[in-house]
Amino acid sequence: MNYENLNKVIEYIELNLLYDIEYKELAKIVGLSEYSLQRIFVFLTDMSLAEYIRKRRLSKALEELKNSNIKIIGLAIKYNYSSAISFTRTFKQYFGVTPSECRRDNKNYKIYPIIKFSKSNHRYEEITYEIKKIDETIVNCYEVVASRHDDLLYKIRNLYKMYSHKISQIERYGIYKNEYNQYTYLLGTKERLTNTKRVRISAGKYALFNVKNYNQESIVQAYKFIYGEWLKSTNYKLRKDTFDFEYYHYDHCYICVPIR
After folding, report:
1. Residues 185, 155: contact at Cβ < 8 Å?
2. What digits encode the pLDDT tens for the residues 26-55?
3. Which helix (H) or strand (E) element contains residue 134?
4. Which of 24-33, 173-182, 219-228 has the highest mean pLDDT?
5. Which single residue of 55, 104, 170, 243 could bond 112 by disulfide (Cβ 3.0 to 4.6 Å)?
6. CA–CA gap between residue 42 and residue 194 (Å, rounded)
Protein backbone atom coordinates (compact mmCIF):
# COMPACT_ATOMS: atom_id res chain seq x y z
CA MET A 1 0.00 0.00 0.00
CA ASN A 2 1.27 3.49 -0.87
CA TYR A 3 1.20 5.15 2.54
CA GLU A 4 2.53 8.41 1.10
CA ASN A 5 -0.64 8.78 -0.98
CA LEU A 6 -2.81 7.90 2.02
CA ASN A 7 -1.10 10.69 3.93
CA LYS A 8 -1.92 13.01 0.99
CA VAL A 9 -5.57 12.03 1.48
CA ILE A 10 -5.28 13.07 5.13
CA GLU A 11 -3.66 16.38 4.10
CA TYR A 12 -6.49 17.02 1.62
CA ILE A 13 -9.09 16.34 4.31
CA GLU A 14 -7.36 18.68 6.75
CA LEU A 15 -7.26 21.49 4.18
CA ASN A 16 -10.94 21.06 3.35
CA LEU A 17 -12.60 20.51 6.72
CA LEU A 18 -14.70 23.65 6.16
CA TYR A 19 -16.01 22.43 2.82
CA ASP A 20 -17.87 19.45 1.38
CA ILE A 21 -15.37 16.63 0.92
CA GLU A 22 -16.15 14.35 -2.01
CA TYR A 23 -14.83 10.83 -1.74
CA LYS A 24 -14.22 10.66 -5.49
CA GLU A 25 -11.57 13.39 -5.06
CA LEU A 26 -9.93 11.42 -2.25
CA ALA A 27 -10.01 8.26 -4.37
CA LYS A 28 -8.19 10.04 -7.21
CA ILE A 29 -5.28 10.81 -4.89
CA VAL A 30 -4.60 7.12 -4.19
CA GLY A 31 -5.65 5.84 -7.61
CA LEU A 32 -8.39 3.59 -6.22
CA SER A 33 -12.16 3.41 -6.47
CA GLU A 34 -14.18 5.16 -3.77
CA TYR A 35 -15.30 1.74 -2.51
CA SER A 36 -11.75 0.40 -2.24
CA LEU A 37 -10.48 3.52 -0.48
CA GLN A 38 -13.26 3.37 2.11
CA ARG A 39 -12.65 -0.32 2.78
CA ILE A 40 -8.90 0.20 3.16
CA PHE A 41 -9.42 3.18 5.47
CA VAL A 42 -11.73 1.25 7.78
CA PHE A 43 -9.35 -1.68 8.17
CA LEU A 44 -6.30 0.53 8.72
CA THR A 45 -7.93 2.89 11.23
CA ASP A 46 -10.97 1.04 12.68
CA MET A 47 -13.23 3.89 11.55
CA SER A 48 -14.90 5.09 8.37
CA LEU A 49 -13.76 8.13 6.41
CA ALA A 50 -16.94 9.90 7.49
CA GLU A 51 -16.19 9.22 11.15
CA TYR A 52 -12.60 10.48 10.83
CA ILE A 53 -13.74 13.67 9.09
CA ARG A 54 -16.40 14.20 11.76
CA LYS A 55 -13.86 13.76 14.58
CA ARG A 56 -11.41 16.19 12.99
CA ARG A 57 -14.13 18.80 12.46
CA LEU A 58 -15.28 18.46 16.06
CA SER A 59 -11.70 18.73 17.29
CA LYS A 60 -11.13 21.93 15.32
CA ALA A 61 -14.48 23.28 16.50
CA LEU A 62 -13.46 22.60 20.11
CA GLU A 63 -10.25 24.58 19.64
CA GLU A 64 -12.20 27.56 18.31
CA LEU A 65 -14.80 27.23 21.05
CA LYS A 66 -12.11 27.53 23.71
CA ASN A 67 -10.04 30.23 22.02
CA SER A 68 -12.53 32.62 20.42
CA ASN A 69 -15.90 34.26 20.92
CA ILE A 70 -17.51 32.67 17.86
CA LYS A 71 -21.17 31.83 18.36
CA ILE A 72 -22.19 28.17 18.50
CA ILE A 73 -24.44 28.58 15.46
CA GLY A 74 -21.44 30.05 13.67
CA LEU A 75 -19.35 27.00 14.53
CA ALA A 76 -22.11 24.69 13.36
CA ILE A 77 -22.34 26.40 9.97
CA LYS A 78 -18.58 26.68 9.62
CA TYR A 79 -18.03 22.95 10.16
CA ASN A 80 -20.80 21.79 7.83
CA TYR A 81 -23.61 21.05 10.30
CA SER A 82 -27.18 21.72 9.19
CA SER A 83 -28.14 23.36 12.50
CA ALA A 84 -26.90 24.29 15.96
CA ILE A 85 -29.02 21.44 17.34
CA SER A 86 -27.34 18.74 15.23
CA PHE A 87 -23.91 20.21 16.02
CA THR A 88 -24.65 20.28 19.77
CA ARG A 89 -25.96 16.71 19.74
CA THR A 90 -22.86 15.36 17.93
CA PHE A 91 -20.51 17.47 20.06
CA LYS A 92 -22.01 16.04 23.26
CA GLN A 93 -21.82 12.48 21.95
CA TYR A 94 -18.10 12.88 21.39
CA PHE A 95 -17.00 15.11 24.28
CA GLY A 96 -19.66 14.31 26.87
CA VAL A 97 -20.73 17.94 27.29
CA THR A 98 -22.60 20.51 25.20
CA PRO A 99 -20.65 23.30 23.46
CA SER A 100 -22.02 25.82 25.97
CA GLU A 101 -20.90 23.71 28.93
CA CYS A 102 -17.52 23.17 27.34
CA ARG A 103 -17.00 26.90 26.84
CA ARG A 104 -17.83 27.66 30.49
CA ASP A 105 -15.64 25.05 32.17
CA ASN A 106 -11.84 24.97 32.45
CA LYS A 107 -11.37 21.30 31.69
CA ASN A 108 -9.06 19.90 29.06
CA TYR A 109 -10.69 17.73 26.42
CA LYS A 110 -9.00 15.14 24.28
CA ILE A 111 -9.12 16.08 20.62
CA TYR A 112 -8.71 13.55 17.82
CA PRO A 113 -5.25 13.94 16.23
CA ILE A 114 -4.40 13.97 12.54
CA ILE A 115 -3.68 10.42 11.37
CA LYS A 116 -0.21 9.62 10.08
CA PHE A 117 0.08 6.42 8.05
CA SER A 118 3.24 4.31 8.08
CA LYS A 119 4.01 0.79 6.97
CA SER A 120 2.84 -1.74 9.54
CA ASN A 121 5.39 -3.66 11.54
CA HIS A 122 3.16 -6.72 11.43
CA ARG A 123 4.21 -9.55 9.15
CA TYR A 124 1.69 -11.74 7.40
CA GLU A 125 3.72 -14.53 5.79
CA GLU A 126 1.65 -17.06 7.75
CA ILE A 127 -1.56 -16.05 5.94
CA THR A 128 -2.06 -18.21 2.86
CA TYR A 129 -4.73 -17.71 0.22
CA GLU A 130 -6.26 -19.35 -2.83
CA ILE A 131 -8.50 -18.14 -5.65
CA LYS A 132 -11.76 -20.04 -5.78
CA LYS A 133 -15.19 -19.87 -7.40
CA ILE A 134 -18.05 -19.95 -4.87
CA ASP A 135 -21.65 -20.85 -5.63
CA GLU A 136 -24.53 -18.64 -4.53
CA THR A 137 -25.28 -19.32 -0.87
CA ILE A 138 -28.24 -18.35 1.32
CA VAL A 139 -27.26 -17.75 4.95
CA ASN A 140 -29.60 -17.28 7.93
CA CYS A 141 -28.08 -14.68 10.23
CA TYR A 142 -28.21 -13.00 13.62
CA GLU A 143 -27.30 -9.30 13.29
CA VAL A 144 -25.63 -6.50 15.29
CA VAL A 145 -25.30 -2.85 14.22
CA ALA A 146 -23.06 -0.01 15.47
CA SER A 147 -22.10 3.51 14.43
CA ARG A 148 -18.44 3.02 15.48
CA HIS A 149 -16.08 0.23 14.44
CA ASP A 150 -14.72 -0.40 17.94
CA ASP A 151 -18.30 -0.64 19.26
CA LEU A 152 -19.02 -3.19 16.56
CA LEU A 153 -16.10 -5.38 17.67
CA TYR A 154 -17.52 -5.40 21.22
CA LYS A 155 -20.97 -6.33 19.92
CA ILE A 156 -19.52 -9.10 17.76
CA ARG A 157 -17.96 -10.73 20.82
CA ASN A 158 -21.31 -10.64 22.62
CA LEU A 159 -23.08 -11.94 19.53
CA TYR A 160 -20.90 -15.05 19.51
CA LYS A 161 -21.49 -15.60 23.22
CA MET A 162 -25.26 -15.41 22.77
CA TYR A 163 -25.78 -17.44 19.60
CA SER A 164 -22.75 -19.58 18.81
CA HIS A 165 -24.39 -22.58 20.54
CA LYS A 166 -27.30 -22.36 18.10
CA ILE A 167 -25.10 -22.48 15.00
CA SER A 168 -23.12 -25.40 13.61
CA GLN A 169 -19.57 -25.52 14.94
CA ILE A 170 -18.46 -27.19 11.71
CA GLU A 171 -19.61 -24.52 9.26
CA ARG A 172 -20.66 -20.93 9.93
CA TYR A 173 -20.46 -17.50 8.31
CA GLY A 174 -19.56 -13.99 9.46
CA ILE A 175 -20.60 -11.09 7.23
CA TYR A 176 -19.29 -7.55 7.69
CA LYS A 177 -20.84 -4.49 6.02
CA ASN A 178 -20.15 -0.76 6.17
CA GLU A 179 -22.95 1.23 4.55
CA TYR A 180 -24.34 4.71 5.11
CA ASN A 181 -21.89 5.33 7.97
CA GLN A 182 -23.22 2.28 9.79
CA TYR A 183 -21.34 -0.92 10.62
CA THR A 184 -23.16 -4.25 10.47
CA TYR A 185 -22.03 -7.77 11.33
CA LEU A 186 -24.07 -10.91 10.74
CA LEU A 187 -23.38 -14.35 12.20
CA GLY A 188 -25.07 -17.09 10.23
CA THR A 189 -25.44 -20.60 8.95
CA LYS A 190 -27.04 -22.36 5.98
CA GLU A 191 -29.35 -24.15 8.43
CA ARG A 192 -32.86 -22.72 8.86
CA LEU A 193 -33.25 -20.75 12.11
CA THR A 194 -36.08 -18.67 13.56
CA ASN A 195 -35.77 -14.89 14.06
CA THR A 196 -32.88 -14.58 11.62
CA LYS A 197 -32.19 -12.46 8.55
CA ARG A 198 -31.73 -14.20 5.18
CA VAL A 199 -28.62 -12.99 3.34
CA ARG A 200 -27.53 -13.98 -0.17
CA ILE A 201 -23.82 -14.49 -0.85
CA SER A 202 -23.27 -13.94 -4.56
CA ALA A 203 -21.67 -16.56 -6.77
CA GLY A 204 -18.33 -15.69 -8.31
CA LYS A 205 -14.59 -15.59 -7.86
CA TYR A 206 -13.17 -14.99 -4.37
CA ALA A 207 -9.73 -14.83 -2.77
CA LEU A 208 -9.82 -17.04 0.34
CA PHE A 209 -7.35 -16.09 3.10
CA ASN A 210 -6.71 -18.74 5.75
CA VAL A 211 -6.38 -16.99 9.12
CA LYS A 212 -6.04 -20.43 10.81
CA ASN A 213 -7.84 -19.46 14.03
CA TYR A 214 -10.96 -17.77 15.44
CA ASN A 215 -9.10 -15.02 17.31
CA GLN A 216 -10.77 -11.65 16.64
CA GLU A 217 -7.48 -9.74 16.76
CA SER A 218 -5.93 -12.08 14.17
CA ILE A 219 -8.94 -11.63 11.91
CA VAL A 220 -8.83 -7.82 12.17
CA GLN A 221 -5.09 -7.80 11.42
CA ALA A 222 -5.70 -10.05 8.42
CA TYR A 223 -8.28 -7.60 7.06
CA LYS A 224 -5.77 -4.77 7.46
CA PHE A 225 -3.22 -6.75 5.47
CA ILE A 226 -5.70 -7.68 2.72
CA TYR A 227 -7.05 -4.16 2.18
CA GLY A 228 -3.87 -2.29 3.12
CA GLU A 229 -1.24 -4.30 1.26
CA TRP A 230 -2.37 -7.39 -0.62
CA LEU A 231 -4.90 -5.78 -2.98
CA LYS A 232 -2.46 -3.04 -3.97
CA SER A 233 0.29 -5.54 -4.76
CA THR A 234 -1.83 -7.73 -7.09
CA ASN A 235 -3.77 -7.24 -10.32
CA TYR A 236 -7.04 -8.26 -8.68
CA LYS A 237 -9.81 -5.69 -8.23
CA LEU A 238 -12.68 -5.76 -5.75
CA ARG A 239 -16.09 -6.64 -7.10
CA LYS A 240 -18.64 -3.97 -6.18
CA ASP A 241 -21.75 -6.12 -6.59
CA THR A 242 -21.27 -8.01 -3.33
CA PHE A 243 -19.35 -8.11 -0.04
CA ASP A 244 -16.58 -10.06 1.63
CA PHE A 245 -17.38 -12.58 4.35
CA GLU A 246 -15.79 -14.90 6.89
CA TYR A 247 -16.24 -18.65 6.49
CA TYR A 248 -15.53 -20.74 9.59
CA HIS A 249 -14.81 -24.41 9.06
CA TYR A 250 -13.82 -26.46 12.11
CA ASP A 251 -10.93 -24.50 13.73
CA HIS A 252 -10.07 -22.38 10.67
CA CYS A 253 -11.34 -18.96 9.59
CA TYR A 254 -11.26 -18.01 5.92
CA ILE A 255 -11.75 -14.40 4.87
CA CYS A 256 -13.41 -14.51 1.44
CA VAL A 257 -12.88 -11.38 -0.67
CA PRO A 258 -14.85 -10.96 -3.94
CA ILE A 259 -12.48 -10.19 -6.81
CA ARG A 260 -12.37 -9.83 -10.57
Report:
1. yes
2. 999 988 888 888 888 888 888 889 999 999
3. strand 128-134
4. 24-33
5. 55
6. 32
| Cα–Cα distance for residue pair 206/256, rounded to 1 Å | 6
User: Are 87 and 81 a contacting pair, CB within 8 Å?
Assistant: yes
* CA-to-CA separations, 178 to 58, 87, 146, 148, 236, in angstroms, rounded: 22, 23, 10, 10, 21
SS3 call for 162: helix
Residue type, 239: R
Residues 6+ apart with CB under 8 A from 44: 6, 117, 224, 227, 228
Nearest to 223 by CA among 5, 35, 45, 29: 45
In a 3-state reduction of DSSP, which class is residue 46? coil
Name the CA radius of gyration of the chain, rounded.
21
- Taking CB atoms within 8 Å and a gap of at least 24, the contacts of 214-219 are 214/248, 214/251, 214/253, 216/153, 216/156, 216/157, 218/253, 219/246, 219/253, 219/255
